[in-house]
Each structure stands twice: as structure tokens, then as C-alpha cells.
Amino acid sequence: MTEPAAVAYDRAMSDYTIVNLSDVEDFAAKYGFGESGEVRFPREALAAQNTGFSHMRLRAGRRSPVPHRHEQAEEICIVLAGSGTAKLDDELRELGPHDLLRIAPPVARQFEAGPDGMELLVFGARHEGDGEQLEGFWSE
Questions:
Q1: What angle do CA 59, 122, 124 make, to 5 degrees?
Q2: Distance between CA atoms of 43 and 52, rounded to whole angstroms?
Q3: CA distance 121 to 20
Q4: Distance CA 26, CA 38 (A)
Q5: CA pair distance 32, 20, nearest whole angstrom
Q6: Taking Cα atoms as reference points, which of 65, 40, 56 lies closest to residue 134?
Q7: Alpha-helical runs (H) found in 2-68
Q8: Which of 62, 81, 101, 121 could form a disulfide with 36 if both were Cys (CB 3.0 to 4.6 A apart)?
Q9: Which pLDDT tens digit goes with each residue over 58-102?
Q10: Is residue 19 domain-resident?
């Protein structure tokens, strides 16, 4: 018998959790950035303690809504589908399907989807209050 995908399993006090990504709240829509795409942060839904991650779907030609950098958190990104550009400090780098990108904490970062959009999974160690949002990072 199979359990619904959105059911959390609690065996011996949270040995594992299963959550369907589509059941995780879309923060882009919640905070008025829905025109850019979708951004989900499943960490809390999974009850993850030390790992942070996000799933991002950017519409064609749109940028990730929150350019930022960190003090401690190194991030690893994988392009699941589509293509686009990563702005890393002052450098632009093209990314395509299955490209992996490691970003050191102090590097400012933002993504822009190509003509087919871009789907990313971004993960790393969780450090509470570690991010710094950057206004006007990627100006035209």
C-alpha cells in the first residue's frame, strides 16, 4: 500500500520525511514575484535541520527575484532543465541542462532564464540569518 506523497513519515522521531515538492508553498507568488516564476524552500516541510535548499523555476527571460550573497553558506546549483545565465559578482556565466555550479559564500549571485526558462535546484548547509539581499545587483 502506498501513502500519499505529501505525508510525512515519523519513524523513531523523524528518521525520514517524504513531501511532494508541489505541496510546498511558492514563495515567489506569496511575495509578489510570481511573474518571474516559482521558488520553493522545502527545508521546513521536510523537517531538515542542517541542510538548506530551494527549487526555482524561472520563466523565459526572467531573473531570480532576490539577488544575494552569504557569509558562511556555500551553495551548489544544478540546472535541471532549460538554460540561462548566472551573474556571479561582475561575471556572467552561461548554464545549461545538468550543469553544476558551486558558489562560495561571499559571491553575489542571481540567475536569468534563457528562451526556454530554467529550472534549478540550489542546496547547501543551513546557516540561520546568513543571507544578504542585494538591491540593484543586475542593472540593465
A1: 165
A2: 6
A3: 15
A4: 6
A5: 23
A6: 65
A7: 27-30, 43-46
A8: 62
A9: 999 999 988 889 888 899 999 999 999 999 999 999 999 999 999
A10: no
pLDDT at 10 over 60: no
Q: What's the predicted TM-score (pTM) here?
A: 0.82
Q: What is the pLDDT of residue 100?
A: 98
Residue 123: which domain range? 25-128
Pairing verdict, β 100-103 and 37-40 = unpaired
Torsion over CA of 115, 55, 19 and 45, rounded to 10 degrees?
Answer: -150
Helices (H), the chain: 27-30, 43-46
> What is the residue-wise DSSP string for 78-108?
EEEEEEEEEEETTEEEEE-TT-EEEE-TTS-
In a domain, 136, yes or no: no
Burial label for 140, CB within 10 Å (0-12, 13-18, 19+), is: exposed
Q: Which of 10, 20, 84 lies closest to 55, judged by CA?
A: 20
The CATH number covering residue 114 comes to 2.60.120.10
Cell of 122: 540550489
Residue type, 54: S
- In three-state secondary structure terms, 71 is coil
From CA 104, how far away is CA 70, in angstroms rounded?
8
pLDDT given at position 14? 59
